[in-house]
Amino acid sequence: MISIFEKAFFRGGLTPGGKRMKKNIWSLLIGTVLFSVLITGCSGSGSKVSSEPIKEKKITLKFYSHGTEANYNWKKTINAFERKYPNIHIDLVVLSEKGDTQESIKKLDLAAASGEPMDVLMFSDSASYSQHVSMGMVAPLDEFIKEDGYKVTEEYKVDTQINGKYYALPGKFNSWYVLLNKDHLDAAGLKVPKDWTWDEFMEYAKALTKDGHYGTYFHGPQDGSWMEYMRLALASESDNSEFLKEDGKSNLDNPLFKKSLEIRLKMEEDKSAVPYADVISQKLNYRDEFLNQNASSILIGSWMNTSLGGTKQSPLNFHVAVAPFPKNNKSDKGGYAPVTTDYMSVAANSKHKKEAYTFIRWYTTEGQIVQGKNIPSWNKVKNQDLKKIIDHILSGTQNPELVDKESLINVLTNAKSSKFTPPVPYQAEIYKVINEEYEKLIFGEQTIDQMIEASQERIHEIIDNNQ
After folding, report:
1. Per the domain annotation, does 50 fall within a domain?
2. How many helices and strands in the chain, by DSSP H and E?
3. 176, containing H or E segment
4. Do 368 and 407 sit in the same domain of this protein?
């Protein structure tokens, strides 16, 4: 094409009026070249979009967790997420190879103090979750939740709200329940309860206390731990289920705290529960007490699912059934129980908060099904998926056929968490006081009313000193 223009140019230059002809040719040349550039640019651009689509920039999220591969199936879970979101890569940091939550928190805080990049944080309990929110390490999720258009209390079984904001979404759902020796039930002519009260629980325990075994076993309190056993009736409620109220004031004047103490004292006196002195002095183990048939029932968390069919260390030689956590009155809605979960949060200093939220939202919903290790907190888990998870968990035990799976599914499907009450920084001091005063009660050194009064006085002092 250039040679044609060159010929026309030179030809024009040799003829009369060639000056004007050259001007016309130059105009034609420039116009044609411009048009050619435009056409080439457009066609090249269109070709590029169709053959080489624009790729999103790949983002790496640093995820800190206490969970081990054995307990959380991370490789399979993270691979599934990255297939669905190929632009997001998860860099997992397992803080403790033993799954030690205390070690994990220490290492997490050390990493934060060292300025390590953080995007996703996983907390194993409400105390560490609440503490790190107060430290400013965790970002609120409300804007993302609003954008997605759901309510946490409708979407999940666990409410994670602190001071009107959400800083975490819940992962697994370990609710407490009652494990029962079904062979002992059958021998006593008792049915597996699908709905019962604390009074009925005590009646069952009394009827089961025979032939050298106790009706039930309480694994606490112990040095300020396992304090769920100090708030039995409180924990059956939808609200105000802790020793402190949401406003930080004492909840020990709640009649249900007194009822919890009455349950423990009565069962100690009629010997339907393993004596507290034996629990402490012999350092008894709750798994052994139940699986060795020393106690016909036990109130415990559903992390026991992995042991229900027995293990090599603790084989199962009887049939196991599951009953819901007892409620206070026949007319109560029921289903409420102490609950533990994994609190999935976005780090406050994350540069990729939206992507970090995308991960924890996926992980706490369909990711829980992919993981297949725990019962999810997500309310929209289908019954067939829940059954698959339970089948998978029980398949890892020695004798899954000895477990009444129907009763287990019924309890886990209907279990609910009470409204979340954020722990205070001095929570351990509160627990220690209640534990000490309880021991004076159980060993006959004071009455229930005296225990409540003494506990109230000491706790008020702790609260005042921390204002």
Report:
1. no
2. 19, 14
3. strand 174-181
4. no
Best CA proximity match to 251, nearest among 69, 463, 74, 432: 463
Asked if 348 and 138 count as a contact pair (C-beta separation under 8 A), the reply is yes
Q: What is the mean pLDDT of residues 75-80?
A: 98
Cα Rg, the chain, nearest whole Å? 33
Residues 295 and 306 in one domain: yes
Residue 10: pLDDT above 80?
A: no
CATH number, domain of 63, equals 3.40.190.10
In a domain, 123, yes or no: yes
270 plus 417 within the same structural domain? yes
Residue with tokens 């990729």: 352
Phi/psi of residue 80, nearest 5 degrees: -65, -40
Between CA 318 and CA 183 the distance in angstroms is: 6
Cα within 13 Å of Cα(246), Cβ side = 12
* Strand, helix or coil for residue 22: helix
Quick one: 218 and 267 in the same domain? Answer: yes
State the pTM of this model: 0.80
Instruction: Tell me which residue range forms the domain holding 27.
Output: 2-41
**Count of domains observed in the chain:** 3
Tell me how crowded residue 246 is: count the other CB atoms within 10 A of its CB.
15
109 and 135 in a single domain? The answer is: yes
Which residues, in sequence order, are bridge partners of residue 65?
94
At residue 26, the pLDDT reads 40
Contact 264/220 with Cβ under 8 angstroms? no
The mean pLDDT of 58-81, rounded to a whole number, is 95
The two tokens of residue 400 are 């899954």
